[in-house]
Inverse folding.
């Protein structure tokens, strides 16, 4: 009996040691260095750019859509805002206030896109939420995701790439003697939540589609391509009328969406990259053939965070290898002219913005 | 870590399909997520419509001392096709019509259900429904006033009325038929005459 009790106590101790060691490893992993820096930087670029496009798409109609004398009156807009929601556009009925705020939104988005940083992300979040809540009729679904993700983005370093001073910032972040910090933990948790939220969205979208009769029948794309609001291309509508192609696209959409969370969790990088790139391709198609440009861009931005920094580096290396191989196959007189604009040669590879950092996680 | 765990758990419950368990936990999940993390991804997995919507606008105009009604003019088609004018960054105007179509469809369904109620309950139910949709119809009133103003510039417009209709798409199985099948337009909802609202930005 005593021996059994001792062995049970030993097993408990071993388990607790295992759990604690696991938690330690997880905490060190979280605090060690910032992850998904490339994806977050791309997402910052995309959200900023999409917000500028959102404002400019109806620039000449801005008074009609968002102004103090818009068809959607400030009192109606206030009634439609959920509890604890806000819109700076509803602070005043003055036309000057509206013009100031609307142009400030465009300028903030541009500054956010170029510079990034936590303060600008917060300002961008306030401006974006305000614009969206001023007139909710114009929202396309991607805006809902952007509203959530930008909150998480305020806790991350979103300007480690593609921003002025990014190189120095990166060197500081990836320095080997850098002690663990709370901001690193916050960054990694926020990045995790962005990926988690995106994965939940795709899985839910795929799940709802499986119950739709037209999705089951494989004719969903036929009907979507014939909706007047989304019919941007007669060729696309014609192609989706093809029984094989329409069915393949309908089923592939569901398959890609349902598989996405599992692909992200997979240990095989090619699966993660293939699924993410396929979804990005789908959203490019939605932008081009359904006219939902801002929606497509915002979804692509969210997808970008789902790839790890190593995924980008490996894709970048592969693209460079392919380019170099292509360049060598060109005739000598065109080779020198074509090869120069891209970083195709070996010395330039090491100087590329996506080079491996000191603390790379492989 | 705790907020992250709370968010992930709430997010899973919030987006889970309806089940006895998810219904019990939905209230707690809503408390965690709303208002700032409110989400509705059913928009991403919709059953696409199998019909296109049409909106006919009529106006009552003061003309030579008399009140005349204009012929119904279909206004949705032009708005829906507006994004094709600039494909790189298309206008979002069709979103307004989508919202109006959805409102009219929901209102019409609710009104039909009310008609089936016992006579004593009907009046109260209708009043409640009208109250719920007051803001939406207020929006329509201003929108169609602005449309009427652009359709009849300089006219003294007194009231506007919108009629929502749907036209089914040619079914997939009949897409190559010759002559092309003609789908009948069905009426969905006709608003009451709404007083013209001047001064809506154009």
């Amino acid at each position: 009996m005593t021996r059994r009790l001792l062995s049970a106590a030993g097993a408990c101790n071993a388990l607790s040691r295992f759990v604690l060691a696991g938690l330690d490893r997880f905490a060190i992993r979280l605090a060690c260095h910032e992850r998904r820096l490339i994806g977050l930087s791309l997402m910052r670029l995309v959200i900023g750019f999409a917000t500028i496009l959102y404002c400019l798409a109806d620039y000449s109609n801005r008074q009609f859509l968002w102004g103090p004398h818009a068809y959607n009156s400030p009192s109606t807009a206030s009634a439609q805002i959920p509890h604890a929601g806000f819109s700076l556009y509803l602070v005043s009925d003055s036309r000057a206030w509206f013009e100031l705020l609307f142009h400030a939104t465009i300028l903030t988005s541009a500054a956010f896109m170029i510079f990034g940083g936590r303060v600008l992300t917060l300002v961008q979040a306030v401006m974006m939420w305000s614009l969206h809540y001023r007139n909710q009729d114009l929202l396309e679904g991607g805006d809902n995701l952007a509203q959530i993700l930008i909150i998480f983005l305020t806790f991350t370093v979103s300007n480690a790439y593609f921003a002025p001073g990014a190189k120095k910032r990166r060197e500081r972040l990836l320095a080997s003697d850098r002690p663990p910090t709370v901001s690193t933990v916050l960054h990694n948790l926020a990045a995790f939540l962005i990926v988690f939220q995106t994965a939940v969205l795709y899985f839910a979208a795929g799940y709802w589609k499986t119950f739709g009769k037209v999705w089951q029948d494989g004719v969903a794309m036929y009907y979507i391509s014939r909706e007047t609001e989304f019919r941007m291309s007669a060729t696309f509508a014609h192609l989706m009328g093809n029984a094989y192609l329409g069915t393949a696209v309908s089923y592939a959409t569901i398959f890609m969406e349902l598989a996405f969370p599992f692909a992200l969790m997979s240990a095989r990088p090619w699966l993660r990259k293939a699924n993410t790139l396929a979804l990005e391709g789908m959203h490019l198609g939605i932008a081009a053939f359904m006219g939902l440009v801002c929606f497509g861009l915002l979804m692509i931005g969210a997808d970008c965070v789902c790839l790890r920094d190593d995924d980008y580096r490996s894709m970048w290396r592969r693209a460079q290898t392919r380019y170099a191989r292509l360049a060598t196959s060109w005739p000598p007189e065109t080779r020198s002219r074509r090869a120069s604009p891209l970083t195709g040669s070996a010395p330039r590879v090491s100087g590329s913005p996506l080079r491996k950092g000191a603390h790379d996680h492989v | 870590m705790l907020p992250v765990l709370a968010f992930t758990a709430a997010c899973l419950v919030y987006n889970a399909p309806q089940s006895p368990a998810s219904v019990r936990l939905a209230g707690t999940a809503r408390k965690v997520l709303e208002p700032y993390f409110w989400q509705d991804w059913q928009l991403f997995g919709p059953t696409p419509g199998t019909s296109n919507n049409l909106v006919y606008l009529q106006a009552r105009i003061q003309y030579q001392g008399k009140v005349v009604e204009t012929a119904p003019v279909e206004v949705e088609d032009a708005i829906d096709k507006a994004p094709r004018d600039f494909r790189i960054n298309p206008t979002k105007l069709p979103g307004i019509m989508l919202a109006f179509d959805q409102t009219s469809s929901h209102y019409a369904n609710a009104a039909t259900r009310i008609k089936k109620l016992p006579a004593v309950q009907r009046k109260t139910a209708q009043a409640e429904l009208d109250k719920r949709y007051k803001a939406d119809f207020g929006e329509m009133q201003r929108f169609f006033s602005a449309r009427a103003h652009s359709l009849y510039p300089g006219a003294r417009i007194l009231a506007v009325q919108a009629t929502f209709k749907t036209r089914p798409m040619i079914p997939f199985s009949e897409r190559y038929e010759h002559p092309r099948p003609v789908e009948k337009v069905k009426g969905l909802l006709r608003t009451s005459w709404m007083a013209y609202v001047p001064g809506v930005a154009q």
Q: What stands out?
A: Chain A is about 70% helix and 0% strand. The first helix of chain A runs from residue 2 to 32. The two ends of chain A are 48 Å apart (CA to CA).
